[in-house]
Amino acid sequence: MFKKLKNKWKVNNLNLTLILLTFASGGSVCGRLSSKILNTAGLEKGIVWVSLYILLVTVLWPLCVIIISIPLGQFRFFRNYIGRIGQKLSGKRQLQPKTIIAIFASGKGSNALNIIHYFKNHPTINVGLVVTNKADAGVVDIAQEHQIPIKVIGPTDFQHPENLMTELKNRQIGFVVLAGFLKKVPDSVIAAFSGRIINIHPALLPAYGGKGMYGQYVHEAVLANRENKSGITIHYVNEHYDKGEIIFQAECKISPEDDTSSLEQKVRALELAHYPRIIEEEIKKQNLS
Ligand code: GAR
Predict the structure, then answer these.
(1) CATH code of domain 99-285
(2) Enclosing H/E stretch for 187
(3) What confidence tens digit (pLDDT) does each residue in 26-75 have?
(4) Is 129 helix (H, G, I), strand (E, B) or coil?
(5) Domain limits, CATH 3.40.50.170, in the chain
(6) Cα–Cα distance, 54 to 49 (Å, whole number)
């Protein structure tokens, strides 16, 4: 049974334990609270008491589990869980379009992992494919661990992207997220996903962008020019490297002691803090328009 739940909710053992603990404590707290309220109101135990008790438990339960989920680190799970119950009850579920994301990545995949975690139990957005040009990249292990299909593309796929397009179509991909993808995405894919393909760049564009400007090279160039700040840029992807319209930027200060590795850490922290949220906002915007 636990294995089934783990697969259904896509969580590890620790999270499953914390989720079950939240369910149990939430249930018992709201049960006690409800009977205390009824007893304080001086109601005699009987059919009215039981009916009001059931009503109170139903109303208080979401509140109790949400509050308890915060210190146990399970807020996002319960927010989505209760949201899904609400949608089912109001019959709105069918009205909500589901968007399936493909993540394109070439590296160790820290952004990809963060995005996968963020959307794990999301009611309307799923990560449905990881595309990479490197069969041995860290992101491949991450996708496997999370049972997300992987598409490895080689030089011929860049010249003839029909195969990749078919894969994206078959998997019903509605939004493409570049997370450290170091090759140029084929123009036909960019055209097919126009306005629905975004990238994160580890500097404040338009500075320090363009071909060859990725990862560590960006930080080295920024430090070599003695800049006093750097940051991240999230932007739409067009046919020119790092030239698409900017959606969001966040900055970090550079101190004289910073080296490539400490600057990379500062920038990474911004990437992890903002990218999934901006993806979510963009998708919501698109689905409303
Ligand atoms: C990230 O810092 C991302 O901003 C950068 O590659 C890194 C990938 O790290 N992307 C670029 O430089 C694109 N020009 P990750 O594989 O650990 O997410």
Answers:
(1) 3.40.50.170
(2) helix 187-192
(3) 999 999 999 898 888 887 888 888 888 999 898 899 999 999 999 999 99
(4) strand
(5) 99-285
(6) 9
State whether the beta carbon of 110 lies less than 6 angstroms from ligand 1.
yes
Question: Which atom of ligand 1 lies closest to the CA of 138?
Answer: 16
SS3 call for 178: strand
* Ligand 1 close to Cβ of residue 196 (< 6 A): no
**Which pair of tokens denotes residue 143?**
């996708």
| Selection from 189, 179, 262 nearest residue 214 by Cα | 179
The tens digit of pLDDT for each residue in 214-263 reads 999 999 999 999 999 999 999 999 999 899 999 999 999 999 999 999 99
150: three-class secondary structure by DSSP: strand
Task: Please list, residue by residue across 122-136, b when 16 or more beta carbons sit within 10 angstroms of its beta carbon and e when fewer do.
Answer: bbbbbbbbbbbbbee
Q: Is the pTM of this model over 0.85?
A: no
Task: Tell me if residue 201 is catalytic.
Answer: yes
Q: Please tell me the residue having the least CA distance from ligand 1 atom 7.
A: 180
